[in-house]
Design a protein that fits this description.
2 domains, 9-stranded mixed β-sheet, 334 residues, Dihydrodipicolinate Reductase, domain 2, Rossmann fold, NAD(P)-bd_dom_sf, 9 helices, alpha/beta, 6-stranded parallel β-sheet
Length: 334
């Protein structure tokens, strides 16, 4: 790959962008955070000054018109992902879109089609998938050390219920725990098993205090081969961020499965009849690795690790989970 850097434009000043994704781009080997846009000009200027971003815009349209911008990162509320992905694609910009990529699979299909038509790359921003520990975990599974896989359990919960004005609690904006954190264990199971689930059964707590969104959900995904994911996700529960993979001869525990920090121990554990061992993993910035993988696809044509079709498939699962929770029945995924 050449020394050319991918010039990123950031559409919006969301917390995830400020805390994690922009610093990740700045720490990457291939990217430059070149511009940021907000509908509040002062907010854009304050964020740019804080993070050292040279160019600001008071509208998303102005950023998309900037011919110096190669790719955009979209951390907007979920209901805006489709519109701004399509508009970015039509402007010739490659798109890294925050998860969940859309409100449903149909929207994601439209987004994927628009990007394909425009000849631009699209990726859903599941940063954890780029951490090398998941390749290490897949290698351990492939080695047979924990035997045949029998099940996966994942959980991602936090308690932010007092922040009643949070965008997560707007149903029409794509609020709810399945959209916000349930997508992590669901996408992780699909990644680890390299299969698509056949059915979903989910029970959820829909809170009238929070515009009727699911504040907690517990689910079962049935995968081919009689393997299942059990999961729970919540925004009104004590914090957890874990993944467990169970085999016939052992299990793998990932205590900090989705949120990994460079300055903390994010190792995982393998337990078999031989005992329990800690597997050390590199301390890396998974947001930087995500930015580098995306840039390699744009700059040198290296295939994206996860295609737009992966985002479509993940949204089909989320659609089924939400339908199951609302209708209180098992939903087949087609």
């Amino acid at each position: 790959m050449s020394d050319k850097k991918l010039r990123w434009g950031i559409i919006g000043c969301a917390g995830i962008a400020i805390r994690s994704t922009i610093p990740g781009i700045q720490q990457s080997q291939t990217g430059v955070a070149a511009a940021i846009a907000s509908r509040d000009t002062r907010k854009a200027e304050e964020t740019a000054a804080k993070l050292g971003i040279p160019q600001t815009y008071g509208s998303y349209e102005e950023l998309l018109a900037d011919k110096e911008i190669d790719a955009v990162y979209i951390p907007l509320p979920n209901h805006l992902h489709k519109e701004w992905t399509i508009r970015a694609a039509e402007a010739g910009k490659h798109v890294l879109c925050e998860k969940p990529a859309a409100l449903n699979a149909r929207e994601m299909e439209e987004m994927a089609d628009a990007c394909a038509k425009a000849g631009v790359q699209f990726a859903e921003a599941f940063m954890y998938r780029y951490h090398p520990r998941y390749e290490m975990i897949r290698e351990i599974i492939g080695s047979g050390e924990i035997g045949e896989l029998r099940g996966i359990h994942g959980a991602f919960t936090f308690n932010n219920a007092k922040d009643a004005k949070n965008v997560r609690y707007r149903r029409d904006w794509g609020g709810g725990s399945l959209y916000d954190v349930g997508v992590y264990p669901i996408s992780a199971a699909r990644m680890i098993l390299n299969r698509e689930p056949e059915a979903a059964t989910v029970h959820a707590f829909f809170s009238d205090e929070h515009d009727g969104v699911d504040m907690m959900a517990s689910g079962l995904l049935e995968f081919p081969g009689s393997v299942a994911l059990t999961f729970d996700c919540g925004m009104w529960a004590a914090g957890r961020n874990v993944l467990e993979i169970i085999g016939t001869e052992g299990r793998i525990e990932v205590p900090s499965a989705y949120v990994a920090r460079q300055n903390e121990n994010d190792h995982f554990f393998v337990s078999t009849k031989e005992g329990r061992r800690e597997v050390e993993v590199p301390r890396v910035n998974q947001y930087a690795l995500q930015a580098d993988a995306f840039a390699r696809a744009v700059l040198s044509g290296e295939p994206l690790p996860y295609s737009p079709q992966d985002a479509v498939l993940n949204m089909r699962v989320i659609d089924a989970c939400l339908q199951s929770a609302r209708e209180r029945k098992r939903i087949e995924i087609r």
